Amino acid sequence: MLLRQLEPRTARTTAEVIKFALWPLAVMTVLNRVFIKAVNGFVTDDYKPVYNASLAFLNGRPVYTANFDSVDPHYLYPPGGTLLIAPIALIDPEKSRWLFILLNAAAILLAWYLLLRLFKYSLKSVAAPALLLAMFMSETVVNTLVFTNVNGCILLAELLFLHLLLARRDLWAGAVLGLSITVKPTLAPLVLIAAARGQWKVLFTAIGVPLALTAAAWPLLKDPEQFFSRTLPYLLETRDYFNSAIAGNAAYYGLPDALTWGMRLTMAALVAISLWLLYRYYREDELFFVTTSSGVLLTAEFLLTGLGQMYYSMMLFPFLMSVVLRNSVLRNWPAWLAIFGFMSYDKWLSDRWQGLGRNLEYLRITFGWGLLLIVVFCVLGDRYLAAKREGRLPFGIDPVWMKDAPDSRDAAEHADVAEPLPDSPRSHNGSEPVDEKRISVEQ
């Protein structure tokens, strides 16, 4: 059956043409990113400090000894995260790094599949190779694998959480979220979505799992208190390097504190209004509400807190995939200009225009996150004002025409199977249509 699927065939529909073109591109891109780019590595190595800390933990030595005066990657995981990740140091560094690359690649691929299923697409749909290619062409996936960090596993945790949340498996959803928070707090804002949906049991395990793992790790670590006295204060500082948050770029360019706080508070107000509109008018539309709200919350976290790095944008994949929904806020070109800013692997450093190129490269992520939040606010705000003006607020804020607008999922399953050409007889085994004119000429 597998060989039959791989048998070269001539596409008979537009959907098949696109799938036949995209699958080889997607598969070869995945292989290149995992086995060539990631194994080659880069000057930035997020894995080395994690491996060294895990090795120190297993040998009973102090773990939190990083020199924060350097700009090299530091070990920043909390005690519970140290306990979870310590097994990577059971083998030699090179093989351990390769296995960690494979682990993250497998996590991203599983997250890709879960993202398809979240929006009711199958592996036979056109969306499958298109999404796979887009993910592995993005900066966030490439650098997660090349720098060898844990973001792929965090993305998988996010997709598992969303599936379990929508299925009302609250304790399991919280447990998955808690495991990810134990290692990195990136997904912590998602507890607000559970709270907005009244799924309070999520909070029990989302908070309980990190506390339990921290308690278990505490007596096993040589210096657990150093995380809270040394590492945590460093994490709460705003650094002026490798930081695309508003505060980070403001520190790099020397902007006044008043201007920096003005931008952060303005953007925070836009986020608060967007979240209120989503809660007020869309919380019953579960998939749209969960994916859009998570995207707004996480983008705000990257932009408005003290640290935001470009490859954090991986956690926005569920939000970006919501473009297939008929009421998506991303069905406009400014949204995708913003997404280009923080997803593209292109470099804008220029040998000819060095100052301009440097500014474009350093600011495009910040501008991208900011523009995305502005787009969400403007789309939702425009819908609200139009509905208020037309007296439709009691019925929601989606425009009237939207109920008949195309939802890209509508024909997702029907497009999986190509229909034969009309009036074309088939051969006796039902495979390819027979061209009777060609046969008669050949005879």
TrEMBL record:
This is Glycosyltransferase family 87 protein. Residues 407-443 are annotated as: Disordered. Residues 407-417, 434-443 have a biased composition (Basic and acidic residues). It is a multi-pass membrane protein. Its EC number is 2.4.-.-. Belongs to the glycosyltransferase 87 family. The chain crosses the membrane at residues 20-39, 98-115, 145-166, 172-195, 202-221, 261-279, 286-304, 333-350, 362-380. Pfam families: GT87 (PF09594). One of its GO terms (molecular function) is glycosyltransferase activity. It is found in: Cell membrane. Keywords: Cell membrane, Glycosyltransferase, Membrane, Transferase, Transmembrane, Transmembrane helix.
